[in-house]
Amino acid sequence: MNTPIPQGKYLETPTDIKTYTYATTGWKDQLLSYGNESFEYYSLGNPTTYRDHALVWGKIRQLEHFDSHEFTYNARGIRTSKDNITYELDGSRILTETRRIDEDTRITTRYYYGSNGICGFKYNGSMYYYEKNVQGDITHVYDELGNLKA
User: Fold this and answer.
1) 145 and 124 assigned to the same domain
2) Is residue 108 part of a domain?
3) CA-based, 20 to 30 A from 31: which of 39, 69, 124, 126?
4) Which tens digit of pLDDT belongs to each residue from 102-126?
5) DSSP string, 79-144
6) β-pairing, 37-38 with 31-34?
7) Is 69 helix (H, G, I), strand (E, B) or coil?
8) Is 60 helix (H, G, I), strand (E, B) or coil?
9) Residue 89: which domain range?
10) From CA 107, how far away is CA 116, in angstroms rounded?
């Protein structure tokens, strides 16, 4: 049963309307346009342009380039680097994230896991802990003294 909502009673008058257009054949989940922006895809279904950005895909549908950003993957198809950031993995879990600042400087973040997944990280010598909601989404970050940081 569709019950229309009286205009002005619950909704404001729209100030902007965006039209979404999807493919009608083949990959029917492909977004072809959003407002005045258009998107292009190659034969395996991955986008080659997205909001005026160029995307380059490699084997097994792995994103290799997004504009000037470069990504690499291991033999299992899990991302191991993005630009100047490398990831140390245990299966698909990220153990460490190392950012190369310059030739001699690197900053490493170590991630910690418990029985319910990721629970915190160590950055710049300090520990931080996650608070999660019932869905497992991280909602807050606390430092080792219990101060809310984010």
Assistant:
1) yes
2) yes
3) 69
4) 999 999 999 999 999 999 999 999 9
5) EEEETTEEEEEETTEEEEEEEE-SSS-EEEEEEEEETTEEEEEEETTEEEEEEE-TT--EEEEEET
6) antiparallel
7) strand
8) helix
9) 75-150
10) 27
Q: Is 27 a member of any domain?
A: yes
Q: DSSP 3-state assignment of 64?
A: strand
Residue 140 confidence (pLDDT): 97
Q: Strand, coil or helix: what is 59?
A: helix
Domain assignment present for residue 7? The answer is no
The pLDDT of 94-108, averaged and rounded, is 95
- Distance (Å, rounded) from C-alpha 71 to C-alpha 46? 16
Q: How far apart are CA 37 and CA 20, in angstroms?
A: 10
Q: What is the pLDDT of residue 60?
A: 72
Residue range 53-76, pLDDT digits in tens: 999 999 878 999 999 999 999 999
Using CA atoms, how far apart are residues 122 and 108, in angstroms rounded to an integer? Answer: 9
